[in-house]
Each structure stands twice: as C-alpha cells, then as structure tokens.
Design a protein that fits this description.
By secondary structure, the protein is mostly helical. Helix content is 84%, strand content 0%. The protein is built from four helices and no strands. The longest helix has 40 residues. The protein starts with a helix and ends with a helix.
C-alpha cells in the first residue's frame, strides 16, 4: 500500500520545519553561550569552566541537525557545485546516483548502529 504523495511531502516539510526550528534554537543558545563566556572572562571573572564545553557540544549538534535541512532541499553546496556544470540529463542522473549512494551509506550506518 502506498501513501499519497501529498501526505509524504507534507510530513517531510513539517519534519524539516521542526528541524530548522531546532537548529535555530541551538544557534541562539550557542551565541548566548559564547557571549556568556566572553562576559565571564573579561567582566564577571567567575571562572565558569563549562561554557566552552557546552559551546562545543551545541555546535556539534547544530551542525549535525543542519545537514538534513540542506540535503532535503538539495541546497548542499557539494551537490550543487558539481551537478550544475553538467547538461540537464546528466544532472538528473548524478542527482539520482548521489541520492542512492547517500541512502545506501546512511542505511549501512543505521545497520551498524
């Protein structure tokens, strides 16, 4: 049984919007954390040791969550930089090949995990 295309597209768009919102919140938290570190170092002098580690983990999570946002809209610069230099038919073949390779890679990573 196949689902109608509009349900799949709607679900994908909603998940993408939720993911973009989460990345936005993580970015705001990262900016606030870095500013807290600067303020602590030069003004407050409280010696907060957790600020740098928190910034590192927020940045890692934000980057890892931002990748699907770019990939969902085919906005990743690696995908566009190469494929735009080919004729239209070759672009479509490359996009399908890259999609299949990406799906296979993440499927393998999921299997290993």
């Amino acid at each position: 049984m196949t689902l109608p295309n509009n349900i799949i597209t709607t679900t994908k768009n909603r998940l993408n919007k939720a993911n973009q919102f989460a990345v936005g919140i993580l970015t705001v938290l990262l900016i606030l954390d870095v500013w807290l570190g600067v303020l602590d170092r030069y003004v407050l002098k409280l010696q907060l040791v957790w600020v740098e580690e928190l910034a590192r983990y927020i940045m890692i999570w934000a980057i890892l969550m931002a990748v699907p946002c770019c990939t969902a809209g085919r906005e990743h610069m690696g995908l566009e930089f190469v494929t735009k230099r080919f004729p239209y038919v070759a672009q479509q073949v490359v996009k399908i090949g890259v999609g299949a390779l990406t799906f296979s890679f993440f499927g393998y990573i999921t299997y290993l995990g």
